[in-house]
Write a structure and sequence with these properties.
single chain, about 140 residues, alpha+beta, Beta-Lactamase, 5-stranded antiparallel β-sheet, 3 helices, about 30% helix, YKT6B protein, protein transport, transport, membrane, lipoprotein
């Protein structure tokens, strides 16, 4: 069981954009890592774009399972995991991350934010904490 990416996006009008993301591409060949990370970013944006406000879904993309949650306020989260990772845990993680993100980052910053301008440092620790499928403690 493995998590590869955890991202927070904003489904605005007219497009979806990435606000913050964390990746674990350590299991891939060194030379493939940047293209795999780009693929995950692109796939996350595409899935959010195709999902309605207030929806949750799990989408199979190649050998990955992408879990998406788009809140009614346009804030969205995507977890990309292997197919063995429990779906329920992914949605619990997305709920937690989006709630915390919306408390720490002003809604005014969502439409214009980017990974460089948004200050939210918890994604990397959530990605490693949930790496084994269940949070430790």
């Amino acid at each position: 069981m493995r998590l590869y990416s955890l991202s927070v996006l904003y489904k605005g009008d007219p497009r979806v954009h990435l606000l913050k993301a964390a990746y674990d591409v350590s299991s891939f060949n060194f030379f493939q890592r940047s293209s795999i990370q780009e693929f995950m970013t692109f796939t996350s944006q595409l899935i959010v774009e195709r999902s309605g406000l207030g929806s949750r879904a799990s989408v199979k993309e190649q050998e990955y399972l992408c879990h998406v949650y788009v809140r009614s306020d346009g804030l969205a989260g995507v977890v990309i995991a292997d197919t063995e990772y429990p779906q329920r845990v992914c949605f619990t993680l997305l709920d937690k991350v989006l709630d915390e993100f919306s408390r720490q980052v002003s809604k005014i910053d969502w439409p214009s934010g980017s990974p460089e301008t948004i200050s939210y440092a918890a994604l990397d620790s959530y990605l490693s904490k949930y790496q084994v499928g269940l949070p430790a403690g």
